[in-house]
Design a protein that fits this description.
alpha/beta, 24% helix, Rossmann fold, 31% strand, binds inosinic acid, binds magnesium ion
């Protein structure tokens, strides 16, 4: 598996340091509130579990499954849809959405709309990776781990056709593997 890696962008140590820093900020920002973390299956799982442990507040968490817009070029062509709904109600709660990566913003835009109609007390977004220059849908992002260049990345939850999620770092793949 490691033979397929072209370049490591973020080592395990660098990811851990950044996640701890995000955890400290979120701890400060949400002091005294009932924080509810929601991640998007499956890419956000690894980030969620580390981030949750870096937040020193009482919190709860839930997972949302959606079929994403990933890989679609034209907005509106395909439709995102919920494949696994939340288990808990979010009305009146302070929700922090935990995402692996935001690219066009189409997926996040869809998720935000479907969460906001449930009337949470607040809704913020925390993403590990961001490509802000790729946005098609402008959508607010409150916490960002790293901005990354326009190269496909895997590891730490992110996959290529279901694989490489368990790499402990974030890396690009050798081009012959995914072109
Ligand atoms: P968006 O709707 O274009 O913002 O796409 C976001 C989703 O696309 C992410 O949640 C990922 O599932 C997927 N995605 C985007 N870029 C990458 C990447 O470099 N590696 C793996 N998945 C990606
Ligand atoms: Mg995702």
């Amino acid at each position: 598996m490691h033979d397929d890696v072209a370049q490591v962008l973020f080592t395990r140590a660098r990811l851990q340091a950044r996640v701890r820093a995000l955890g400290r900020r979120i701890t400060r920002d949400y002091a005294g509130r009932d924080l509810h973390l929601i991640t998007i299956l499956r890419g956000g799982l690894f980030f969620l579990t580390d981030l949750a442990r870096a937040i020193e507040l009482p919190l709860s968490l839930d997972c949302l499954g959606i079929s994403s817009y990933a890989g679609q070029v034209t907005p509106g062509q395909g439709r995102a849809r919920i494949t696994k709904d939340l288990d808990d109600q979010i009305e009146g709660r302070h929700v922090l959405l935990v995402e692996d990566i935001i690219d066009t913003g189409l997926t996040l835009g869809y998720i935000r709309r479907s969460l906001l109609v449930r009337e949470p007390a607040s809704l913020r977004v925390c993403t590990l990776l961001d490509r802000p220059y790729r946005r098609i849908v402008e959508t607010p992002v409150d916490y960002v781990g790293f901005e990354i260049p326009d190269a496909f990345v895997v590891g730490y939850g992110l996959d290529w056709r279901g694989r490489y999620r368990n790499l402990p770092f974030i890396a690009t793949l050798k081009p012959e593997l995914h072109t």
